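Input.
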Amino acid sequence: MHFYGEIGLGIFSYAPKVTDLDNGTVYVKKGSVAEGFLPLSLGFKYQIKRFDVGLLATFNKTLNDKVDQVYDSKTESDNWSFFQLGVNYTFGKKQAMMEWVNPMEVVYNDLSDMKDRIDVMSGDKDKDGVSDLFDKDNSTPEGVKVYGDGTALDSDGDGVPDNVDSDPYSNKGAKVDASGLEVDTDGDGVPDSRDMEPNTPKGNLVNFQGMTIAPAGSYGNDGITSNSATGWLPSIFFDVDQSAIKSVYNDRLNTVARVMIKNPKLKLSVVGNCDVDASEQYNDKLGMKRAEAAINHLVKVYGIDASRLTATSLGKKEQLAKGNKRMNRRVDFEVAK
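Output.
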C-alpha cells in the first residue's frame, strides 16, 4: 500500500455575479476573472495484481470570497473539497506500474541473481569435483567416484551406484534388487542371468550354471563323490577390515542352509578370504573370523549341526579379482570331499 500527499499553487478563471449579503447589492463583472488557489491532497493506493485501487481527498483554498457568487464579510475566502476513487489496470508484459517498482530493489535483485549464478558455476556442494551448475546429483556422498555429470559411478549399469551396490559387477542386463544383487528366482544360489535351470527344486545342489548335480537327499552315507564336488554355492562379501555379516547376504546364507537341510549328509568347508592389504598373519586371522561368523550364523539361525561345517582361512593367498579388493573380502562355501 502507498500513501501520498500533494500541495501546490494553481490559477482558475470564472465570470462571477456576486451578491453582497450585507446590503443586497449585486455586482456583475463582465468577462472572466483569474484567481489563485492552493490545492492540498492526501490519498493512498493499494495494488491487487495488475489493478491499482486508490482513494484521494483534495482540499482547495482560494484567495477571495467571490467564487460561490456570494460575498459575506464574515468569511475571508471560499474553499471547496472533493473525494476521488480510482481504479487503474496495467496492460502489457509488466505486472505492475512503474510507481510500484523500487529501482534500488531491482539493482539488488539483479546483483543477487548474478551472485547466485556465480556461486552455482563455481560451487561444488557435494565436493565431487563437478560444479553445481552441471551436477545432476548435488548430494553425492563425499569420496564417491562420479561421471562427468556428477552422478555416481555405476560400473555394471544396473541402476544401483557402485558405492551402495552389493555386487558392482552384475551381468549386463541382469535384473537386480534394491541392493544391486542379481535376482535368484529359484533360490539355488545362481543368479537368473546365468541360470541354465531356472526352476531348480529347493535343496538341490547345482553347478555354476545352476544345473542340478545332485538332487536333495541324494548324497548317501559316503558323502559327495569326486564327480559332484564341483557344486556351486553363493559367496558372501565383507567390508574393509570387518567380519560382521551384512544383512543383504542373509538370502545367500539361506540358500546354503536349505541345501544342507535337504541334504543331511552334506558337509561344507567354509573358507575365509581377504584382500592384499595388511600382513599375511593379520589376514589369516581375519579370514578365519569371517569363516567362523558365517558358521555361527548357519548354526544359530538355521540350526545346522556345527560338526558339518569346517572353518578355514586362505588369508590373502587366493585373490579372485586382482583389480577389485572388495571381491576378495569374502567367504566361500565348498563341498567337503
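The domain at 184-335 is CATH 3.30.1330.60 (60s Ribosomal Protein L30; Chain: A;).
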